[in-house]
Amino acid sequence: MKMKTLVVVIPAYNEEATVGKVVREVPRDIPGVDRVLVLVFDDGSTDRTADAARAAGADFVLSHERNRGLAATFRDALDAALALGADVIVNTDADNHYDQTRIPELAAPVISGSADVVVGSRALNGLREMSFVRKWGNRIGNSLLVLLYRLPKGTDVSSGFRAYSREAALRLTITSNYTYAHESLIAARDHNLAIENRVFPARDVTRPSRLMSSVRSHIFRAGSVAILSYAVHRLFNILMVLSAVLTLAGAAAFLRFLYFFATSGGAGHVQSLIIGSALIVIGMQVLVGSFFGLALAKNRRLIEEIICQQRRALYEPKLVIPTHSDVPGDVASMADTVSSGQRAKVALAEK
Ligand SMILES: Nc1nc2c(ncn2[C@@H]2O[C@H](COP(=O)(O)OP(=O)(O)O)[C@@H](O)[C@H]2O)c(=O)[nH]1
Ligand SMILES: [Mg+2]
Predict the structure, then answer these.
(1) Is 236 within 8 Å of 294 (Cβ atoms)?
(2) pLDDT at 351
(3) CATH node for 5-224
(4) Which ligand 1 atom is the nearest neighbour of the CA of 43?
(5) Phi and psi for 174 in degrees, rounded to 5?
(6) Hey, which of 94, 146, 197, 245 has its CA 20 to 30 A from 60?
(7) What 3-state class would DSSP assign to 196?
């Protein structure tokens, strides 16, 4: 049987003070996997983050030449983990916010195959670090997103402590350049990946957050990422609802006019007619817009499929079936008749 690999990825930006501690705390013996690798992705730190990570025993330390932001670093770290043959990928922060000794519990559902994404949610109550505004801003925004995305109850959408299956890492695409946390969950929903939630205590972090310069700007930026992601991914649904509301309101006004028209000739009620007609026309236009939303979503699916196939070709070269010339007859004829998806499964079965 193939060796099972778990890769712990740690995006780090100017974390020389804590990254070593985090690397050392990662358990190297995790039930259900044969080896655990630690990969620190240094995002153009200006301090000695990379050296500290290496000194602490990280198996791989990759660096961006300049700071490219957390979302880009996260995606690059996933790609690196895929290239290393990861079956399970755990992301944790370099600031020692999460308890690495809980990684086995976090990863267990992915290792057993029952989940594709496990969110390690923070039990916030014990945290002193969070200001009142941040805590409540977080809570309200969080509940809204859990509701909108139909995530497991209590999911901490901005937690970076997560486990991903290889399939999830192959499929997730991130377009935000600020934070990937929300977008990756919507994307996981879109791809029908199984999401689970586990709650762990988090630690207080005393250094100021790297991600947010001020609480207000963070709430604003993270909030707009979340809302825009929702709008982009669910444009069809949003516009359908909007269209239905407008059309129904228009129809009500229109019917009101018809009623007066039938009973008293309609004199003095032409406003209802105008408003009703206008709302219906706008509602129909929004309906047409929603079809564009649907077309865009389909298009996005196709593009994501291409990206996913490309990642497979890059990171799973064995899955690409050779052409007729260099394989025995039956496989060659099979490769002729099956689609690429089936081919991948055929190749997997042969391994
Ligand atoms: N790669 C990268 N990592 C970052 C950047 N900003 C923050 N991080 C890392 O992302 C993780 C979370 O950042 P942090 O500032 O703790 O955000 P918070 O926990 O949401 O307040 C930490 O491991 C940081 O080192 C960045 O610009 N690039
Ligand atoms: Mg942090």
Answers:
(1) yes
(2) 45
(3) 3.90.550.10
(4) 1
(5) -120, 130
(6) 197
(7) strand
- Domain coordinates in residue numbering, the chain: 5-224, 235-350
Cβ–Cβ under 8 Å, residues 13 and 68: no
Instruction: Locate the ligand 1 atom nearest the alpha carbon of residue 10 and give its number.
Output: 23
Closest residue CA from atom 27 of ligand 1:
69
Residues 41 and 10: beta-carbon distance below 8 Å: yes
Could you give the CA distance from residue 171 to residue 121 in angstroms, rounded to a whole number? 22
Give tens-digit pLDDT for 245-290: 999 999 999 999 999 999 988 788 899 999 999 999 999 999 999 9
Cα 257 from Cα 339, distance rounded (Å)? 58
Classified as helix, coil or strand, 39 is strand
Q: 157 CB less than 6 Å from ligand 1?
A: no
Residues near 33 by beta carbon (within 8 Å), at least 6 away in sequence: 4, 5, 6, 87, 88, 107, 111
pLDDT of residue 345: 47
Positions of the chain with pLDDT lower than 50, given as ranges = 329, 331-351
- 178 touches 202 (CB < 8 A): no
Instruction: Mark the residues whose beta carbon lies below 5 A from ion ligand 2.
Output: 95, 97
pLDDT of residue 128: 57
Measure CA 40 to chain center. Answer: 20
The residue among 91, 108, 191, 195 whose CA lies nearest residue 150 is 195
Question: What confidence score (pLDDT) does residue 314 get?
Answer: 93
DSSP per-residue codes, 134-166: HHHHHHHHHHHHHHHHTPPTT--TT---EEEEH
42 CA distance to ligand 1 centroid (A)?
10
For the CA of 73, the nearest ligand: 1
Question: Which residues are bridge partners to 11 per DSSP?
Answer: 41
What pLDDT is stored for residue 175 in this prediction?
86
Model pTM above 0.70: yes
pLDDT > 70 fraction of the chain, expressed in percent and rounded = 85
